[in-house]
Amino acid sequence: MKQTAQLQRLVIAPSQFQKEAINLTPQQQHYLSHVLRLRSGDHFIAMDGLGHWWMVKLENTEAQILEQISVQNELPISITLIVALPKGNGFDEVVRCCTELGATCIKPVLSDHTIPSPSPQKLGRWQRIAQEAAEQSERQIVPTILAPVPFRNSLADETSHRYLCVARGTYPHFLNHLSATISTTDLNAVTIATGPEGGWTDSEIEDAINTGFQPVSLGRRILRAVTAPIVALSLAMAALECD
Ligand code: SAH
C-alpha cells in the first residue's frame, strides 16, 4: 500500500458512496484526470468530510474503495469561531487559515461596526475554500461555515466555553485563561469571538459578557480583523496540543 502522504485527497459527498465504490461526478472525474493527472488504477484518498478517510482506486467514472484509513488529526475539542466580517475578501483568508489550524465551525457575523453586507453567493465560495483547505491540510472533517447573522443572534445558542477577544483594556491573556481552564475543567467545546476593523462597541462587549463570554487579550499589539481569529486559533492549538 502506498504511503498516504504522497496521495491526493478529495472530499466526496456521502450520497456518492456505494457499497464498494464511489460514483464520481463529471467535475471530480475532470479534476482527477486532467488537473491531478491520475489514471485508471491510481490510488487517492477519499474523505467524507465527517471524519473518515478511505484508500480508493480510480476506475474510469468510479473509485473502488480499497480500505478505510484510520487517522487522528483533529484537535481534541471542538472550536467554533465567531468572526465579525472583515472588509473586502478578508474573510476568505480567515476561512482558509482557520481551516488549516483546525476550526470545527466558523460563524461570520455582522456587528455594529461591520461595513460589508455580503452577497448570498459568498457562503458557497467560503464553503469551497474550507473544503479545499481541509483537503490540503489533511483534516478529517471539513469545518461548517454558516451564513452570516447579526452578532447578537450568535450569542444566544452557545453552549460551549466562550471567549470574546477585545483589543484594548486589561483583560487576561487568552492563552493563560484557556490553559488554566483546560487544567481545571473537562472542556469539550470552546467558542472564540473576534471583532471587525472598527472593534466591538461597548454595548456588544457588555451583551457578550452578560451571556457568559469571558473577555480576553491576544497580546499588546492591535491585530487586524483578519489576523485576530488566526492568532486566537493558533493560541488555542498551542494550549490544547502542546504539553
Ligand atoms: N480598531 C480597533 C481594533 C479592532 S481590531 C481599535 O482601535 O481598538 C479587530 C478585532 O481583532 C478586535 O475587535 C478584537 O476582537 C481583535 N483583536 C485585535 N487585536 C487584539 C488584541 N491585542 N487582543 C484581543 N483582541 C484583539
CATH class of the largest domain: Alpha Beta
The beta-strand count equals 12
CATH topology of the largest domain: Alpha/beta knot
CATH architecture of the largest domain: 3-Layer(aba) Sandwich
Termini separation: 33 Å
Question: What is the string of SSEs from the N terminus onward?
Answer: EEHEEEEHEHEEHEHEHEH
Q: Assess the beta-strand content as a share of residues.
A: 15-25%
Chain oligomer state: single chain
The poorly predicted ranges are none
> How many structural domains?
2
Backbone shape: elongated
Q: Can you tell me the CATH superfamily of the largest domain? A: SPOUT methyltransferase, trefoil knot domain
User: Helix tally?
Assistant: 7
Helix content: 25-40%
Bound molecules: S-adenosyl-L-homocysteine
Gyration radius, to the nearest Å? 20 Å
Overall structural class, as computed from helix and strand content, comes to alpha/beta
* Biggest sheet statistics: 7 strands, parallel
Mean pLDDT: 93
Task: Walk me through this protein's architecture.
By secondary structure, this protein is an alpha/beta fold. The chain folds into 2 domains: 4-69, Hypothetical PUA domain-like, domain 1 (Ribosomal Protein L25, Chain P, Beta Barrel); 78-241, SPOUT methyltransferase, trefoil knot domain (Alpha/beta knot, 3-Layer(aba) Sandwich), CATH 3.40.1280. The chain is built from 7 helices and 12 strands. The protein has helices at residues 26-35, 90-101, 121-136, 151-156, 174-184, 202-210, 227-241; strands at residues 9-11, 21-23, 43-47, 53-59, 62-69, 78-84, 105-110, 144-145, 149-150, 161-165, 189-194, 214-216. Strands 6, 7, 8, 9, 10, 11 and 12 form a 7-stranded parallel sheet that branches. It is elongated. The structure holds S-adenosyl-L-homocysteine (SAH). S-adenosyl-L-homocysteine binds next to loops.
